[in-house]
């Protein structure tokens, strides 16, 4: 058992972990170790990329690198559940690829991300192979979700291959982007059914794409062609409608649902209602939606305004605070970024027409700091909650390999100084893009050290990353969200027996 309660002396014999003689060994001393359910003062010993022991007063030899964490938190590296690196989208490709985006992530304390594979001409296998190639330069661990953009027998078969052979356990359905990625309700229903049978999590981009299309036409007819037209054309009511529709279809199929980038009160309230009724719905806010409002979209400078264009749009002030409250009360469960960046030249494709501005904002480097400052520093959540919503993702079946400081877990670790501070600057961030939607933000707390796969990759504000060192992490199906689904199905079927019996005896 790789996850046994390890101590230094036992490591070969008890756990079967056989360190090589040239192993990299680290001891993090004196910090407060934080997991999703508890915190304790302890040392953490790492060998060959794996946490070997978590206990007080660990003694080691001279060949071990020491890191002092006195007065600081030792936490699992962040897992960003929503990114788009090297994604071809809206006639261009995101400026961050699997190396630059991951380097930025590591500088901000994120040590794993889950990216969305886009099928090639509808083929999931071809899409997966293309993303395998893109990810070869990875410098940190990553997993994949898969988008479903069309429906036929071959897609249905390929979904099974993705789950059973490729380690994908989640599929995203875009209810918006009419004419490119958008699917209709018929496809969504088929997809939900297939996800259920495979134990895969269905994810939705929830906006009514037909109504958005109509809203965009309306703006252009009114002569509103600038970035503000983006927000005006796709109001929160359209996000609420699609969220409600997806939730109801998932209830009809009786399968869990994950709503990505929840940006509005309208969508959040639909999720709250469904969860209250017992439905398994996960809501993911993204850091831009949690900490920004839409005022930037009205900036008279096109490039400044265009950098905020993403979908669903960043909403008016008030939605941000409501999403924070929902996160703190458990209505929403984890925070992503939707990191999908285009530089100013790419954003300028839409200088005369907001519909051509590539959609997407940054966040992969900023998420850990901004969530700390906004949620923990403000007193809305505890430090253990912080770990749960930024890293411990039971939903994707990664725990306890990832998202935990436990013996046997991967050594993806941050040392976080709550008494230090951070400042975000487009001029000094590590992403390749030339703008930053959080430019100028300052706050408390700082990721001082990032350890990925047992290697110190960020220390003293310096990155030491190696292309090709990141690993693809397979994620098995049937997470805890599927517990009880079969029993609910059986109950539903037996509830049908009574009316069927009545009909039979009458005829
Ligand atoms: N969100 C966004 O604007 N771009 C990325 C694609 C998506 O997630 O919808
Ligand atoms: Zn989306
Ligand atoms: Zn996205």
UniProtKB/TrEMBL annotation:
Q: Which organism is it from?
A: Theobroma cacao
Extract the Pfam families matched here: Amidohydro_1
What GO biological process, any one, is recorded here? pyrimidine nucleobase catabolic process
> Which residues are reported to carry the modification N6-carboxylysine?
172
Q: What is this protein called?
A: dihydropyrimidinase
Q: Which residues form the Amidohydrolase-related domain?
A: 73-457
Family under the similarity heading:
Belongs to the metallo-dependent hydrolases superfamily. Hydantoinase/dihydropyrimidinase family.
Self-association state and partner proteins as the record states: Homotetramer.
State the reactions this protein catalyses: 5,6-dihydrouracil + H2O = 3-(carbamoylamino)propanoate + H(+)
Q: Matching PANTHER family, A to Z?
A: COLLAPSIN RESPONSE MEDIATOR PROTEIN, HYDRANTOINASE/DIHYDROPYRIMIDINASE FAMILY MEMBER
PTM info: Carbamylation allows a single lysine to coordinate two divalent metal cations.
UniProt xrefs under InterPro entries: Amidohydro-rel, Hydantoinase/dihydroPyrase, Metal-dep_hydrolase_composite, Metal_Hydrolase, Metallo-dep_Hydrolases_sf
**GO: which molecular function terms?**
dihydropyrimidinase activity; metal ion binding
E.C. no: 3.5.2.2
Any one cellular component term from GO for this entry?
A: cytoplasm
Q: Which cofactor does it need?
A: Zn(2+)
Keyword list, A-Z = Hydrolase, Metal-binding, Signal, Zinc
């Amino acid at each position: 058992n790789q996850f046994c309660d390890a101590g230094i002396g036992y490591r070969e014999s008890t756990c079967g972990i056989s360190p090589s003689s040239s192993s990299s060994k680290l001891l993090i001393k004196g910090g407060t170790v934080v997991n999703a359910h508890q915190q304790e003062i302890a040392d953490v010993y790492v060998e060959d990329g794996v946490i070997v022991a978590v206990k007080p007063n660990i003694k080691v030899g001279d060949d071990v690198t020491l890191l002092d964490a006195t007065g600081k938190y030792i936490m699992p590296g962040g897992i960003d559940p929503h990114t788009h690196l090297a994604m071809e989208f809206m006639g261009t490709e995101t400026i961050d690829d699997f190396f630059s985006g991951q380097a930025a992530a590591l500088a901000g304390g994120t040590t794993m991300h889950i990216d969305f594979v886009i099928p090639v001409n509808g083929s999931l296998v071809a899409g997966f192979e293309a993303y395998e190639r893109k990810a070869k330069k990875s410098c940190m661990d990553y997993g994949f979700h898969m988008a479903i953009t069309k429906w036929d027998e071959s897609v249905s078969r390929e979904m099974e291959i993705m789950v059973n052979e490729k380690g994908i356990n989640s599929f995203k359905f875009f209810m918006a982007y009419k004419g490119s990625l958008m699917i209709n309700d018929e496809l969504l229903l088929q997809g939900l059914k297939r996800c259920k049978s495979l134990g895969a999590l269905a994810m939705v981009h929830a906006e009514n794409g037909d109504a958005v299309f109509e809203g965009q036409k309306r703006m252009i007819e009114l002569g509103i062609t600038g970035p503000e037209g983006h927000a005006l054309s796709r109001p929160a009511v359209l996000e609420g409608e699609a969220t409600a529709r997806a939730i109801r279809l998932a209830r009809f199929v009786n399968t869990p649902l994950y709503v990505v980038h929840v940006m509005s009160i309208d969508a959040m309230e639909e999720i709250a209602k469904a969860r209250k009724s017992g439905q398994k719905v996960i809501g993911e806010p993204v850091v831009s939606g949690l900490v920004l409002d839409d005022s930037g979209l009205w900036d008279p400078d096109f490039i400044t305004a265009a950098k905020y264009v993403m979908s669903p749009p960043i909403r008016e002030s008030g939605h941000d605070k409501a999403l924070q409250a929902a996160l703190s009360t458990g209505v929403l469960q984890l925070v992503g970024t939707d990191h999908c960046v285009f530089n100013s030249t790419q954003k300028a494709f839409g200088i005369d027409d907001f519909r051509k501005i590539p959609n997407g904002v940054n966040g992969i480097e900023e998420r850990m700091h901004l969530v700390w400052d906004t949620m923990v520093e403000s007193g809305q959540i505890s430090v253990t909650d912080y770990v749960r919503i930024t890293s411990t993702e039971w939903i994707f079946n990664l725990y306890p390999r990832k998202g935990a400081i436990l013996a046997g877990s991967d050594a993806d670790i941050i040392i976080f100084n709550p008494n230090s501070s951070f400042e975000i600057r487009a001029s000094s961030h590590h992403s390749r893009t030339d703008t930053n939607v959080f430019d100028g933000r300052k706050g408390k707390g700082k990721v001082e050290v990032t350890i990925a796969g047992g290697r110190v990759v960020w220390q003293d504000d310096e990155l030491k990353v190696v292309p090709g060192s990141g690993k693809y992490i397979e994620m098995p199906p049937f997470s805890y969200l599927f517990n009880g689904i079969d029993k609910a199905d059986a109950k539903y079927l037996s509830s049908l027996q009574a009316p069927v019996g009545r009909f039979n005896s009458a005829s």
